[in-house]
Amino acid sequence: MPNTTFSLHSPLDMHIHFREGAMLRRVAPLSAETFAGGVIMPNLVPPVDNQVRLDRYDREVREVVEPLAFEPYMTLFMRPYTESELASMKDRIIGVKLYPEGVTTHSEQGVGDLGDVEDTLDLMQDLGIRLMVHGESTDFVMDRERAFLPVYENLARRFPRLHIVMEHITTREAAALLDRHENLSATVTLQHLLITLDDVAGGLLNPHLFCKPIAKRPEDRDALLALALDAHPGLVFGSDSAPHPVDKKECAGCAAGVFTAPIALQMLVGLFEEHGALDRLQAFVSDNAKRIYDVDPPAKTVVFAKTGAAIPERYGDVVPMYAGRDLEWKVAEVR
Ligand code: NCD
Ligand code: ZN
Questions:
Q1: pLDDT tens digits, 181-228
Q2: What CATH number is given for 5-334 in this structure?
Q3: 6 pairs with which residues across the strands?
Q4: Which sequence spans correspond to the domains of the chain?
Q5: Which residue in 52, 108, 152, 195 has a CA-CA distance of 20 to 30 Å to 170?
């Protein structure tokens, strides 16, 4: 008998863009409906990089997801911080996110020279504050993640007590680093388990699949998928769901970001089922993250039914990945 229902307990999205204001109100409830928690990225304009901004953003997010059982794990945008700043915000954040200057959406105030934040990294290691990294250089677009890997290795060696998260990995070489350094873990998105550059730009250009880091080669996608299906203990799901209004996607100068929040879990259930790995999905979307990040999200059970549903064309002015396509699994109940 094929499975017709499937349940996940307290799924977590360990990399998500909620934005603020009207966009936050539109997208955050879509995540909070099914996920029990998520890591909220700080690349707002201006970035979340001080106590006032953090308090305000934390409050705004909590007000929007209320009364759904969803724990927002807040992050700070990397800049040189003092010890007292870090000490006062330490208990309010799950980590500090490092964006190299200019590599992605709203990273203009990112770090230009890693030397500028060495002292901050030292303090973070001492205070037990996690580092999350957008690991791309400014080389040729397909090589940016590979070119950044030596930076990860240097950081991992120089700061052996610092937990470093390689965010949204897209290459098999990045995946291989997981087995080389105990203090490195990684997130991976839905799209990077499914697509390659061909899906983005091999035929007609698909702006809704354009994100940073750009999707890579089939062998990269396959290596990431193999690790996810195996629920590698150093890998967790982080959608990197990154909504942009449709006029910023369907235009010249398309913004980077794929919006997957409302369909990610349903698609993952389909993907893991297709590969006979449904028994590993709980670890990939929750248990690994609970262990690696030492979090205890609210209890929530999401029941999926194999009854099919169409992916909406739009959520307000945001177009989701695979808009209009059929989903095999839908969310039948959340309790
Ligand atoms: C993200 C965004 O839109 O904020 N875009 C993206 O392509 N992933 C930023 C990021 O995570 O790089
Ligand atoms: Zn992101």
A1: 999 999 999 999 999 999 999 999 999 999 999 999 999 999 999 999
A2: 3.20.20.140
A3: 304
A4: 5-334
A5: 108
pLDDT by residue (tens digit) across 25-70?
999 999 999 999 999 999 999 999 999 999 999 999 999 999 999 9
| Residue 3, pLDDT score | 66
Give the containing element (helix H, strand E) for 225.
Answer: helix 218-229
- Pair 188, 168: CB distance under 8 Å: yes
pLDDT at 266: 98
Joined tokens for residue 57? 């953003």
| 62 token code pair | 């909590």
Encode 152-187: b = buried (16+ Cβ within 10 Å), e = exposed: beebbeebeebbbbbbbbbbbebbebbeebebbbbb
- With residue 334 as reference, give the H or E element that holds it: strand 330-334
Distance 307 CA to ligand 1 centre (A): 32
Indicate whether residue 242 lines ligand 1 (CB < 6 A): yes
Taking the model in full, what pTM does it have?
Answer: 0.98
Strand partners, 184: 164
Ligand 1, residue 256: give the atom nearest the CA. 7
CA distance 73 to 186: 16
**What is the per-residue burial (b if ≥16 Cβ within 10 Å, else e) of 96-131?**
bbbbbeebbbbbebbbeeeeebeebbebbbeeebbb
**Nearest ligand 1 atom, CA 211:** 7
Residues 234, 2 contacting (CB under 8 angstroms): no
**Length of the chain (residues):** 335
